[in-house]
Amino acid sequence: GAVVSQHPSRVICKSGTSVKIECRSLDFQATTMFWYRQFPKQSLMLMATSNEGSKATYEQGVEKDKFLINHASLTLSTLTVTSAHPEDSSFYICSAYALGGNNSPLHFGNGTRLTVT
Amino acid sequence: TQLLEQSPQFLSIQEGENLTVYCNSSSVFSSLQWYRQEPGEGPVLLVTVVTGGEVKKLKRLTFQFGDARKDSSLHITAAQPGDTGLYLCAGARVSGSARQLTFGSGTQLTVLP
């Protein structure tokens, strides 16, 4: 079945540094990927829609200069948290649709736990 | 503002009990999906409902989509400890050329042995 791989699964970084998270579709091509953020025991909040070969679309309130998204190929999207601060500590999850059609399922990566110290 | 409200937010029950989780919105969705998520992992799709009034069953789980496609429910019969997890409903809408999912506020279920 369709698999979305995220790397790394956990990362700890110091305040002020940047962290890159990768999201790969392993056995399908994804022109669109989605990045979500999730705080403990809360739901997923959509941060941005990553579009292959074009600029990402950010949700209201998400700083595009802080959360840099690059979707350079049909199987890879990256999210870079720049100048990370402790309040950026969260669980970041990516997802992609495996097939076309209006009701195909969204496949999720296993998430990246970011801790900023 | 959460577009999809789930209730209850937290639920702790004994093994063998039945439960229902509700997902309500003022918006109409083209489809609605239910996911289950365990700590430290991504959500896993349980079911997709598309037609107003649709009912789908998955073993002990029964999913219903409201007639107006604005709400849904998940009923679990004879809950087991393995059912413990965060249950999320998600409504699908088309935004530009992309189909987006809006997630509900989530229901944390704990089934005690």
How is this structure best described in words?
The complex is a heterodimer of chains A (117) and B (113). Chain A contains no helices and eleven strands. Chain A has strands at residues 4-7, 10-13, 19-25, 32-38, 44-51, 57-58, 67-73, 76-81, 90-97, 106-108, 112-116. In chain A, the strands form two sheets. In chain A, strands 2, 4, 5, 6, 9, 10 and 11 form a seven-stranded mixed sheet that branches. A four-stranded antiparallel sheet of chain A has the order 1-3-8-7, with no helix packed on it. Chain A is globular. Chain A starts with a strand and ends with a strand. The mean pLDDT of chain A is 90. The model of chain B has no long low-confidence stretch (mean pLDDT 91). In chain B, strands 2, 4, 5, 9, 10 and 11 form a six-stranded mixed sheet that branches. In chain B, strands 1-3-8-7-6 form a five-stranded antiparallel sheet, with no helix packed on it. Chain B has strands spanning 4-7, 10-14, 19-25, 31-37, 44-49, 55-58, 61-65, 71-76, 85-95, 98-103, 107-112. Classes of the chains: A mainly beta (117), B mainly beta (113). At the A-B interface, strand 4, strand 5, strand 9 and strand 10 of A face strand 5, strand 9 and strand 10 of B.
Structure summary:
The complex is a heterodimer of chains A (117) and B (113). Chain A is built from no helices and eleven strands.
Sheet having the most strands of chain A: 7 strands, mixed
The whole-number mean of residue pLDDT values of chain B reads 91
- Helix content percent band of chain B: under 10%
Strand content of chain A: over 45%
Based on CA atoms alone, the radius of gyration of chain A comes out at 14 Å
Number of strands of chain B: 11
* Main pleated sheet of chain B: 6 strands, mixed
Structural class of the helices, strands and pairings of chain B?
Answer: mainly beta
- State the order of secondary-structure elements of chain A, H for helix, E for strand: EEEEEEEEEEE
Which consecutive residue ranges of chain B, at least 5 long each, have pLDDT under 50? none
- Number of discrete helical segments of chain A: 0
Sheet-strand content of chain B, in percent, reads over 45%
Helix and strand run of chain B: EEEEEEEEEEE
